[in-house]
Input
Amino acid sequence: MTKRELADFGELLAGEETLLDGLSSGEFVAIGGDSVPSSGAGENRQIRGPFLRYLLLGGCAALKKRGCHLHEKGVRVEGALITDVLDLEGCTLPHDIALMDCRIRQTPNLRSAKIENLFLDGSILPGIGADGLTAKGDVFLRDVTSTGELRLLGATLGGDLVCNGATLTAGETGFALSADRLAVKGNVVLQDVTSTGELRLLAATLGSDLDCTGAALTAGETGVALSASGAKISGAFFLRNGAKIKGVLDLTAARMDNICDDYTCWPAAGNLMLNRCQYGAFTGGAISGAERIKWLGLQNPAQFGADFWPQPYEHCAKVLREMGHREDATMVLVEKEKLQRADRRRRLWRSYMREDYYWFTVWDWVMAVTVRYGLRPLLAFGWLFGFWLIGALVFLAAAQRDAIKPNDVRILRSVEWVACAPDYKASDDVEMTKRNQTGETQLACFLHQPEARSYPKFNPWIYSADTLLPIVALEMQSFWIPDDRDRGVGMWARRFLWLQIISGWALSLLAVAGFSGLIKSD
Output
């Protein structure tokens, strides 16, 4: 039964007497010193939890003869050993609770309590039970050492949750901090926190920042070091200054204004979850596409039984683009396309759809090297330039070896062409005088004929462009063609011509499709 009268406590302990003597001052009452007492400290440093509750709920009014009254600042204790349970479940306290540098033997019960501020700085305790707690101001857990779960499920704080320098160890649940659905108007500060076990901020709502600067967070049995899945952070997420996360960092579906980070502070590869995470900018850290690709590459959806997550790449690219880094945004999207298409091929292979797998392997390779999956359509013009240059050199070599012939059937049947053949012999049906008397090639002889003076001269540079570009007609291809009767250069030039025509059409179409966005995977 909860003690309601002073007489219920019997003779007061020396530490309790000290507290009564200084209670009305509004200052911190040092119980036997200002350091954390040992677990075996004597009665001069002890305060019973039920007695402390009695004072917090106004019991001091019964001690007016001793000049005792509860100051507006509340109970402010320093260096005490709190024995038994401090049970304030459902209580409404119009003042602060401050237990600084205290050792608290049993888990305080603050479930559904309503208070002004809570100060437990420097104290050692086995955890806190504060589900549904309402604090008009702050909850300070600076330099706290907790050997069990800090439970703040559904708590509402009008100020900040400050845990600077705290050392947190998970209890039997595997959680060092359970703050699902926590609503904080200010910050959640985890600067320089050392934790072993999961810190949970699932679906928490923060009015300002989540600051993990310098924190050392190590996963426990759950494998998760920090989970802020579904959290809404109106300010920044800070992860810098040597922060270390050993275990999974889960930011699934979290929303934050910006990320201020250092790449070295993120968890190891495979331990980052960013699916559906949204943020507005990168501040104070790397913003280059290459660095952000490394960051996004820390994810491994397969480790969590999922397929590739495209959204983190899409959102990162969107943010970089809005920040003015368009080239970096494109780099991220190219990487996304590469990984997403690789994931598609893996699924096809697992489904024994081998024909589709091989087809997409070839198609994805073509898209990668030509237009970067449609994200760099100008790259197609680079390929076109390369084919034009190679083609010009191939056709020039063919022309120098007279392995080019007219591409006009009337010319090929004409006297000036037929009679120029080195092996020409008059037949009984057609009598023509052999025109090649000096052993020239047929082409050279033809070009020396008066009838050929009006025939367009062969230009390998114009010819290469004319055969390559499907939308350009330079009127060279209709007059000349590689002579495949020449089993050397002429034959290979004819084959290259086919390749060039096909490549010209393909690259032109890919460039157009890339500009229109038709060949992206989504």
About this structure: The CA atoms of residues 304 and 349 lie 20 Å apart.
